Structures are given as C-alpha cells and as structure tokens.
Amino acid sequence: HTLKSAMSAESTNDQDKLAERAKRFGTAPESSKLDERAKRFGSAAPSSENEGNKLAERAKRFGSQNVAHPSGKTTAQEYQEKMRLRRERFGTGTTSTSTAVNTSELQAADEEEAQRMKKRRERFGEAASVDGRDFMEKKRARQERFGTATTTEEEKKQNRAKRFEAKT
User: Fold this and answer.
1) Which residues make Cβ contacts (< 8 Å) with residue 157, sequence separation at least 6?
2) Between the CA of residue 13 and those of 1, 31, 131, what are the distances in Å?
C-alpha cells in the first residue's frame, strides 16, 4: 500500500464509522446537517474551496496584499518579502545611520543612568560592599541581637525543637 491509498482507505473508514454511528443513534450525519442548515438560511453549503475564495475576497475587501495560501503556509520568498516590508514600515533595518543613532542614544541613556545611580548612592549610601563583608557582619550582629546566632546545624535543630515544644 502507498501512503495515499492508506489515507483514502482511512478516510472512507472514518466516513463509514460516522454513518454507522448516525444510524445507530438515529441522527443525521454531519454533512447532511450542514446541508440542512444551508437550506434553512438560504446560503451555500460550506466547502474547503469556498473558504479559499472567502480569504481572497476578504483580502481584496480590506486591501491586504499579503494573501496567504489556502493551506496557511507561505513560501520562503513570500516570508522574506513580508519581512522586508515590515522593516521598511517600522524602520528596523540595519543601516549605518540607524545604528549610529542607536549607539549615540544608548550612550546618552547609559550616562543618564550612571548619573542617577551616583545620586542614589550619595543619598542612601552603599547597600553592601563588593565582596559582601559588610552584609555578612550586619547579618551576624542581627543574629546575635535576636538570639539566632548558631554555629552548627545540630544547634539549629535543637533551638527549633525548643521553640515548637513551647507552643504545644
């Protein structure tokens, strides 16, 4: 069997299953339901061909030149064209003038940020030294003040056990 014949056999098998199910439960198959609805509302029955046409009509109506294929897939060339149009529209190209402007803007922003950080350090002081010694000293002093300064894991466990025994 080839893949195509296997797929067609599978689709007929699915159609047979749906028809058998409809007969068993006394309901109409999906396709007939869609046909009945189309008659009731006076429109054509939906089909995959109509959907492709609808997309093309909608693209014309709204003035879109980027009409996708009915399958929903675009080729590499179409994708590149879309990206080129997008770069032109939003100005995200990589030209020498745009990078020069971006670089100077970034430098100005960095200088401004550095000034703000300098003012902040003057106002609040340094939070911790670079190597973290001040922070560790403050942490140790805080532990001693609140009585949580322990040296081993065993002492931590014992202190925890004492705390929870007192609550119960």
Assistant:
1) none
2) 16, 16, 72
Neighbouring CB atoms inside 10 A of 77's CB total 8
Strand (E) or helix (H) holding 39: helix 30-41
Over the stretch 53-93, which tens digit does the pLDDT of each residue have? 888 888 888 877 655 555 566 678 888 888 899 988 888 76
Count how many Cα atoms sit within 13 Å of the Cα of residue 75 in the half-sphere of its side chain: 3
DSSP string, 17-31: HHHHHHHHHT---HH
DSSP, collapsed to helix, strand or coil, labels residue 48 as helix
Neighbours of 88 (CB within 10 A): 10
Cβ(86)–Cβ(93) below 8 Å:
no
For residues 112 and 118, the answer to whether their CB atoms sit within 8 Å is no
* DSSP state letters, 121-150: HHHH--SS-TTSHHHHHHHHHHHHHHT---
Are 71 and 77 a contacting pair, CB within 8 Å?
no
Could you count the other beta carbons within 10 Å of the beta carbon of residue 87? 13
Model confidence pLDDT, tens digit, residues 130-149: 556 677 788 888 888 887 77
